[in-house]
Amino acid sequence: MSDDTLLETRDLTKEFKGFTAVDRVNLKVRRGSIHALIGPNGAGKTTVFNLLTKFLPVTSGHILYKGRDITKSKPVEVARQGMIRSFQISAVFPHLTVLENVRIGLQRKLGTSFHFWKSEKSLDALNERALALLESVDLAAFAQTQTVELPYGRKRALEIATTLALDPELMLLDEPTQGMGHEDVSRVVELIRKVAANRTVLMVEHNMGVVANLSDTITVLARGSVLAEGPYEEVSKDPRVLEAYVGTTEEAA
User: Fold this and answer.
1) DSSP secondary structure string, 143-205?
2) How large is the average pLDDT for residues 212-241?
């Protein structure tokens, strides 16, 4: 595993009762890059994410993170090493304020994650850092807003802020623009570009316009296997990709 490779899979395979959902996938994610995982529905993208973050056990193959084999690690162990994931469905606390959501992510560093009996004032030390994170995702003006009142695109931005609160070295974003209108998509694209400046991002994304705009490297999955890999300019012209992923190049145009 070379020094510039942060995450690597070797013949990663997942079978469900005889059905092979992920078939010997070899993936290398370079440090400091934005790497997109794309493919038609049922290609195995989210299953790969679930394997990487240990929400599913691996049938065979290996996962290496920062040169260590994490194939049999637990989800919490992977997260503590700096691999933090978002989900397709926005995962925030709707009846807490925007600021309180970010403070929950920051509590781990204080060692008070489970000290629910302590007064709220004990968390005030986190306010400055929480506000700085909200500023970085253009949510500072919403700090005291109850999260349930945020529009969908802003909730996704808040989710990225709570992910950043865990100080990830590698961010895994699962369909970050799913269900968004054009304005929200543009905002989230710029946000991902901004937060990726000092870290590595691996994302599953269906919107080829987003992928073309952001990604350094694209891996295309089809039927659980790697079909093609490279920069968007190469991948988007690959006849195998066009056949498996009909219409995406036109959508991205």
Assistant:
1) TTSBGGGS-HHHHHHHHHHHHHHT--SEEEEESTTTT--HHHHHHHHHHHHHHGGGSEEEEE-
2) 92
